[in-house]
Amino acid sequence: MEFQERRRIRREPKYCLDNTVVGDSWRMFRIMSEFVDGFDAMSAVGLPGVTIYGSARTPKEHKYYQLAEEIAAGLADAGYAIITGGGPGIMEAANKGAMEAGGVSIGLNISLPHEQAPNPYTNFPLHFKYFFVRKVMFMKYSMAFVCMPGGFGSLDELFEAMTLIQTQRIKPFPIVLVGSGFWTGLVGWIRETLLAAGNIDKEDMLLLKVLDEAEDVVSFIKKTVIV
Question: Are 78 and 218 spatial neighbours (Cβ–Cβ below 8 Å)?
Answer without folding.
Answer: yes
